[in-house]
Amino acid sequence: MRTRFLLVLCLIPVLAQAAQVFVELQNPPAIAYWHEGRKGVQSLALARSQLAANQQEQEAFLAEVNRRGVQAQEIYRVSRLLNGVALEVPDESLELLRSMPQVKALRLLRPKKPLLATAGPLVRAPQVWSQAYTGRGVRVGIIDTGVDYLHRDFGGPGSGYSSNDSTKLGDAPFPNAKVVGGWDFAGDNYDAGSDTPSKRTPKPDPDPMDCGGHGTHVAGIVAGFGVTKEGATFPGPFSLATPLADLAVAPGVAPEAQIYALKVFGCSGSTALVAQALEWAADPNGDGNFADRLDIVNLSLGSDWGSNDDPDAEAANNAARAGILVVAAAGNSGDTTFIVSSPAAATAALAVAAAVDSGAVVGAFEVLAPQNLAGSYPASEADFGPDLATLGDRQGLLAQPQPGEELGCEPFSPASAAALAGKIALINRGTCTFKRKVLNAQNAGAIGVLIVRQDDGDPFTMGNDTSITASITIPAQMTVLSVGQRLREYLSQGVQVRLTARYRNQFLYTNRAREDTVASFSSRGPRGDLVLKPDLTAPGESVFSAANGTGREGVSLSGTSMATPVVAGAAALLKQARPELAAWQLKALLMNGADPWLFGREKGQEPYHRVSRVGAGRVNVERSVSTPILLYASESPQAVSLSLGLLEAGQAASGQVKVANLTNRTVSLRLAAQQTQALTGVRLSVVPSGLQLGPGEEREVTVQVETWQDLGVVRDGTQAATQGNWPRFFLTELSAHLYAFEQDELVGVVPVYAVLKPGGNLVAQPSRLQNAGSQASLSLTGDPQPGLTPLVVPLELAYQAAPTGNPRPARLMALGVASDNSSNPTITFGVKTEAPWVSPEDVKVQVFLDTNQDGTADFKLENRRAVDDTDGFSVRVCPLPAGACQDVAPLGGLSPEGVHIPAFASSVMVLAVPGSEVGLSPGSNFQFWAVTSDSFGEATRTPVIPARVGGNAVSFPGITGVAALPAAPGQVLSLSLSSNTAARVLLLFPHNRSSLQMQVVPVGKGQPARHLSRRQ
Ligand SMILES: [Ca+2]
Ligand SMILES: [Ca+2]
Ligand SMILES: [Ca+2]
Ligand SMILES: [Ca+2]
């Protein structure tokens, strides 16, 4: 489900057979009674009695379910962080369950996927180790695929993986000094998304041994000891002197923290067991006393389009309330608005985005001659064709094909084949698959292939192309652009190279220019209710960590899954350094200490990334450990960031940030707020701009945002203009940081975020209506909006409703239609709804066209997301009753590249279609009606409305194609009227403030001609 802002009751989709749901019962969870401190003793008794009451309530509820004959399969019960049971039930029983008085809410369990990635180099962790903070004594739960506790990285024996029975204890050394506890909630065969019912039922056991590999890699990033080149557990010491480059696997960020392996996945697939594992983390010994909770949990998992009311998100919020710092992956779905994952989207969770660091552990190839080029260079291998480790090294002269054939995507010409035969072929990456290139080289007689990337990004394992069944018999490696260029310079002298596996996982490739750029896969926020997410960024591309089942090897993976444990490890260091701080304060300190700049193109270069992609910035644990202050939004300490919601241009907003002195000395601060990408028409200020705080003192500052009508409505400079080959729509975002400086040193940041929308005030002046027989005209007044091309959409009014006083974004206030008079006219429908939606996906507008006027619709137009997981929105046309739908135009009809029609945060939607797509030609009569809906169901259904291509009672001679004209003060709109007819014109102003987005003007018969007054 991708809907936001909705009550969970409405989120249950119609599934074919059975649904997995979380049934929340009426009693509160036990955490509601839990308080530490002076009232602790009393609250413990209350919490325990609530726990017992909840367990009774669940028993009674399940007995009742059984009595009513519902075929429910229990998945789990929880009563501490949430009170309820997770069930798989047949669809037809959902209504019955929902109606039972014991049921408070019924929510879909959204399966969570592990977010694959490589975890990477560290963020000043060795500096903190040198201060003697290594995570010692801090307890971190890894909610994942399990942990291979036999691996040397965790102090295991390095053997015994295959002989371990993964369902029982006693046959392998677990727990050990590193992996000190855990549980398998799933069993190896579990997969929440499986088509096989038995696989959807978890089979818990006490042995959390990993079989997927993800959790082992993640645990290694958090707290692995490291593995020496000899394959032994690295014994330390952990400090700036730790010989990181001499280790086969580097230590984790907090190498002396303890790991709890909470296995919620089977060996593959997804999970619905996250809330249950969080419950365990809150009360490991199950006695109802939360004092033994874990300090930190790592959730390198999620599902896209996160909200704050997914059950797992609610469990994450309540785990934070119990005092656990919940660190969760932002997701791997890229630069799309609102796609940030749940449970990272939970307000109290620390949502982690992924960036790139300067180093990656890869393999290499060798150049043997000429002498001045000799050496080893970064390279990866292919996962198809012969394995170089068993084939042995492949040596030869390097050769390239004829100009124009460098990509190797087509069979090589005879001239190229003559050049490549018996040689190692140098071929560029791009356009077709790696296997295609290698096959073509093989057919040309080459003995090996060296592929050159288009840039200096990390060489990565070249994937297979299973559509090519031909056998690949020659080896291939891939290197980077700068190396390829150098090789080409020397080709005429004869370059002798050796493809080899001998550097596999041992060659450290560094590229400083990519450091602190953002990983392309990292999911964008904000959350659907405009609260800022993600919160923080860490390296997550090509991270090298423990490889499951290998005993001592490492592997390179990429993803926000790998960035998350970097932050969880940093949190463990901070927890040891500042044990007196609560979990939410640790979250704030991690964000406050961040280096706020992440780079769109290259290290040090603008544009900087907006906070909706990277949060506070890239974690810098050294600053978090040393900063004297704590900063957080007063009204939402758990969020830390200051989110100011939606502002229309011309409006102002402000919010308070608390500044606390954590030290015993007086601290003098200078405060400033600055945008990460400056928008025009916005001013930020901080009052006061300086503070002196006594020891332990806490004060509040106000961050003020003022906007003007000349607001710069521009796309994030790091975003491409298109996505999935569609023009992309975008939010206009205020992205800023509040900076605190002591002397001139940056000591803390807090992200500041708001969504802005144009706030124009153009209106037609009815008093200047010229009504002369069959012609009329209307003139516009208002203030010009520099930097924007505002539009007016002139339509003939077809439907109008009065406001209800209970604004709903899907309810229609007005609907209009217009078409031009060309030989292939475009039919434009425009709607104004009762309140702005956040995403156009929140509201479905369907226009049904009855083109042969027989009372049955022949076509349907609707808004939709053009390509899954992108910001491209389109108008889709479907022939009815059944036919192939197609996307005919971007939503609004005009390319958002040329003229921007706001699609987000608007209450105006324009759907246009060429008449030829729906069988309408000039002068055709047709009828139509519209139905709008949201996840609550249908909002408006209009009556059937007669219409005519070219206009019914009124038409607009000035329009060609989509009915939208540039709007400016003084501009005159011409109207053509049928004689003796009264009509009403609907004018939509997409760029106006919400209260001025529609205007209805009566014209024609009965409307007296008015005289234009002088322009004022
Ligand atoms: Ca075992
Ligand atoms: Ca197991
Ligand atoms: Ca306990
Ligand atoms: Ca029809």
Automatic annotation (TrEMBL):
GO terms for molecular function: serine-type endopeptidase activity. The active site is at D144 (charge relay system), H214 (charge relay system), S561 (charge relay system). Gene3D superfamilies: 3.50.30.30, Peptidase S8/S53 domain. Keywords: Cell wall, Hydrolase, Protease, Secreted, Serine protease, Signal. InterPro entries: PA_dom_sf, PA_domain, Peptidase_S8/S53_dom, Peptidase_S8/S53_dom_sf, Peptidase_S8_Asp-AS, Peptidase_S8_His-AS, Peptidase_S8_Ser-AS, Peptidase_S8_subtilisin-like. Residues 190-214 are annotated as: Disordered. One of its GO terms (biological process) is proteolysis. PANTHER family: CEREVISIN-RELATED, PEPTIDASE S8. This is Peptidase S8. It comes from Thermoanaerobaculum aquaticum.
